[in-house]
Automatic annotation (TrEMBL):
This is histidine kinase. Residues 41-258 form the Histidine kinase domain. It comes from Phyllobacterium brassicacearum. The chain holds residues 635 to 900 of 900 of the full protein. The lineage of its organism: Bacteria, Pseudomonadati, Pseudomonadota, Alphaproteobacteria, Hyphomicrobiales. Signal peptide: none annotated. It is found in: Membrane.
Length: 266
């Protein structure tokens, strides 16, 4: 009996080891696949703006004297815009590594959300040409403990997405209010929205919902970085679907600081 049991145990152990080997092999294959998808995606995101820069700069070098002023300005704008895109992408990659290594140290102070929204909006209007916006932020909203640079970057990412995925000229709304101990902020658009099964996954690194989204410039990094930033400041960020019509809603919740921050806003 002992021998039989020992044999059975040996077989069981061997099976477990085999299963573990198979699991390990599967994991390694999945890691390889992810690594190569990551490299393809990063190379693509670096190559696209670089190709545009090289094209515009090459044309300028060859034909500048013969070109009308407007054409020269347009080519130069392409060089600047695409360089900015590259710059943002590289900054995003660096932010991502800082978040993942836990080296993110927000520089927090007390700030009025309306001011941060104002800065993010004017940047979005200038850089991405965001047009139709509606902002409703009460002037007596409590101040928040936040890093204004990080918070503005999150809002900019959300506005950038709204501009990218919603039809041109549709309305983007930003609202803020208080709810128990929280300041709640909504960024809402009139685009296709996010399918229910993807509402959580859009915050994963490099996750993009639609095949078609690959044609819009993007990296699948914006939302995961945004979540990293907001969580580093003690808040939460989630995505929902609009109930009244199609469109995405992003909700940021930030705790209201315990101390009375500023009599003007408290
Ligand atoms: P990126 O926009 O660079 O792809 P993000 O992390 O910002 O990366 O977004 C991840 C994905 O979530 C997008 O690729 C898109 O599929 C989806 N998404 C984000 N914002 C919106 C939005 N406002 N409307 C519809 N889909 C969105």
């Amino acid at each position: 009996l002992f021998d039989a049991l020992a044999d059975q145990a040996a077989v069981a152990i061997e099976r477990t080891q085999l299963a573990a080997d198979v699991d390990r092999a599967k994991l390694a294959a999945e890691a390889d696949r992810l690594r190569s998808a990551l490299l393809t995606s990063i190379s693509h995101d670096l190559k696209t703006p670089l190709a545009a820069i090289l094209g515009a700069a090459g044309t300028l070098k060859e034909f500048a004297p013969a070109l009308p002023d407007e054409a020269r300005v347009e080519l130069l704008s392409t060089v600047i815009d695409e360089s900015e895109r590259l710059n943002r992408f590289i900054a995003n990659l660096l932010d991502m590594t800082r978040i993942e290594s836990g080296a993110m140290e927000p520089n927090v102070g007390l700030h009025y959300v309306g001011d941060i929204v104002g800065t993010a909006l004017s940047r979005a209007k200038k850089i991405i040409g965001l047009r139709k916006t509606e902002v409703a932020i009460p002037p007596d909203l409590p101040m928040l403990r936040a890093d204004p640079v990080l918070f503005e970057q999150v809002l900019f990412n959300l506005l950038d997405n709204a501009a990218k995925y919603a039809p041109e000229g549709s309305l983007v709304r930003i609202r803020a209010w208080t709810d128990a101990g929280w300041v709640v902020l909504h960024v809402m658009d009139e685009g296709p929205g996010i399918p229910a099964e993807d509402l959580e996954r859009v915050f994963d690194t490099f996750y993009r919902v639609r095949k078609g989204d690959q044609v819009t410039a993007g990296t699948g990094l914006g939302l995961s970085i945004s979540r990293g930033f907001i969580e580093a400041m003690g808040g939460t960020i989630t995505a929902e679907r609009r109930a009244d019509r199609s469109g995405a809603i992003f909700t940021i919740r930030m705790p209201i600081p315990k101390e009375t921050p500023n009599p003007e806003y408290s």
